[in-house]
Every structure is written in structure tokens, then in C-alpha cells.
Amino acid sequence: xxxxxPKFFHVMQYAAGAEGDVIDMVSGNPDWEPPAALxxxxxxxxxxxxxxxxxxxxxxxxxxxxxxxxxxxVDPDRVVVTNGTGEANYLAMARAFERDAGDEALLMDPxxxxxxxxxxxxxxxxxxxxxxxxxxxxxxxxxEAASEDTALxxxxxxxxxxxxxxxxxxxxxxxxxxxxxxxLVMVDEVYDHFDLTGGFESALTLESDRLIATSxxxxxxxxxxxxxxxxxxxxxxxxxxxxxxxxxNVTGARPSxxxxxxxxxxxxxxxYAEARDLLADRVDAFTDALDAAGAEYxxxxxxFYVLARFDDFPGTxxxxxxxxxxxxxxxxxxxxxxxARDEWIRFALVTPRTAEAAERLADYFxx
Length: 367
Prior knowledge:
Blueprint: H1 7-17, E1 23-24, H2 36-45, H3 62-72, E2 79-82, H4 84-97, E3 104-109, H5 114-121, E4 125-130, H6 139-145, E5 150-156, H7 168-180, E6 184-188, E7 211-216, E8 229-232, H8 235-249, H9 254-266, H10 269-292, E9 296-297, E10 305-309, H11 317-326, E11 329-330, E12 332-333, E13 345-348, H12 354-366
Parallel strand pairs: 1-11, 3-4, 3-5, 5-6, 6-7
Antiparallel strand pairs: 2-8, 7-8, 9-10, 10-13, 12-13
């Protein structure tokens, strides 16, 4: 099997090698400070006795799993701590395909590119399902696409790249569709702390034995390099997920888990609120400039991405490179996210230079 390198890396490498100053709006690396308690915990860890530098339990430190379970209102035995949310997603998808209940995954279009990549790696077949114009779920489209071959339905809320926050009733209907065709539902909620509407509700409130929720701390604590994620699995599937996790990774990193546990206990809610306020201000500045540029765009309800479409400038890889060279702004081509927004360009607002980037785009397209 041949694997295709994600287009993210291609654009980032091109921008890094470009002449002149380029503002990176490709990657989703938060640019703000991690929680102070996390930094302090890492300092403390360096002085712990030698046994603290050995393998932790494969499924994750008990105290961390208990803290996650308390916040998610689930039993700690259902929680598997993973190497980032990406591994949690991989474990969830693997469970869906291992059941001999079909080999098709329904993915919402536009789609986070790593989902179809993982489906391919696991031997499944991806079917792209259209979403509403604002990125919300189109339950009728999911129902029409679902069949006896469907093993998995993948949902992501708040959504990358559209910024949509899915309505809980729509999630409930999507889960019901999955139940009707013997499929599992994976709901990636890694951006749950970045709901800008106040209306986000976790899919775990549905209490379905078909539902696997995944999340992590890379975005919410601005620690993409520490690789701490988790999956909440139904009792029927958690044992197999733990075994695959052990065989693939043995375990996660103990220092990262230790630090996240301390940060969960000691970080005030103001930390997350300040990050949301920062992003809301960036959304305002960026979309004001897009208005000046005459662009059509999606205003995010959550996460920290904006999709934009410019007249006579489709979101191809070639045009993304033109923006790098001629405007000094690096975004992602829309066709990296499926077919629904292939004329659009996605911009990540996790840079202190968001307003400057917006001005560059307004100047470039306004001339």
C-alpha cells in the first residue's frame, strides 16, 4: 500500500522555502501560553524518583483517566489515553472495521484530511457526504448514503475546517441512522473548548452504545507537542481498543500525562475563556478584511479556522502557492478537504499576525 503525504506538509515546506516574509496560517498550532500549572508540573517531574521515568499503565495514568471521566460523566474504565487525538481516532476507526459489519466510512464533506487517510490505511472505503451550506449536518444526506456496507460514521464538532458546531438533535439523528445499519459513530470533539456560541453539547450526553467520543489537550492547552489525547469507548469495545493501543504504542508518555493531570486540576476556567476571547477578536479582524476583499467566507461558530472564496481565484494548490509568493500569506487549498469546498482556501487563526495577514489579503484582492 502506498501512502500519500498530507498536503499540510507540502504547503508548509513551500512557505518555509519562499522568499520574503510569509505568515503561516496553515497549521493548527495554538500560539498562546500553555497553562501555568502545566509548566510547573513539568518542572516538578524532573525531580521525581527513577520509577516515575518508567512505563505508565498502557491505558493511561489512572488519575488522569479519572479526571477525564469526571468531566465527561463516564466510567474511568471506558477512557483510553492515547498519543494525541489522532491515535484515539485511529483506534475508533479500527474498532468499526474489525467488526465485519462493512468496510465503508461516511465522512462529512468538507472533511479533515487525516480521516480519509486513516480509513485507507485501515482498508476501508470513504464516502463523502455533503453537509449544509454552513457546515452543519445534513441528516437526510447521511441517511441516504448509509447502507449495509457502512461500518462507520465520522463526525467532528466544532468542525475543522468549517467551524460549524453540530446541533445535538442532529447528532442524535445521525446516531440513529448508524444504529439502523449496524455502524459505529466516532465524534471527534478536540475543539470542544473553542465553542464561540455557547451552544456546544458533547455527543456523550446521548449515551449510545454505538458512539465513540475522542478528544485531547493539544488545542485546549496549546500543547500540540505533548501528545495527550483520549477516547471514550462503549464497554463492548474498550477492551479491544486498549489492546490495539498497547500493540501499536505500548503506552503513552508519563511526563505529558502527569503534567496534563495537574493542569486539569489547577487551571481556572478563565484560561479557556481568554483563549476564546482572543480567537473571537481574531475572527472579527479577519472577516472584516475578507469583507474588504470582497470574499465569501464561513464565520466559525467554533474551532479556529476560516474558509474563504475569492472571485476568479479558486483554492487550488497553485493559487495557494501564489498567495505565499505574492501576498505573503500561507493557507490550505480547499481540495485538501474533499470536494465541497474545492474553490475555497482555509486559514488558521492561530497566529498573533492574524490581523496583518488579513490586511495583506485585503490589499492583494482589493487591487
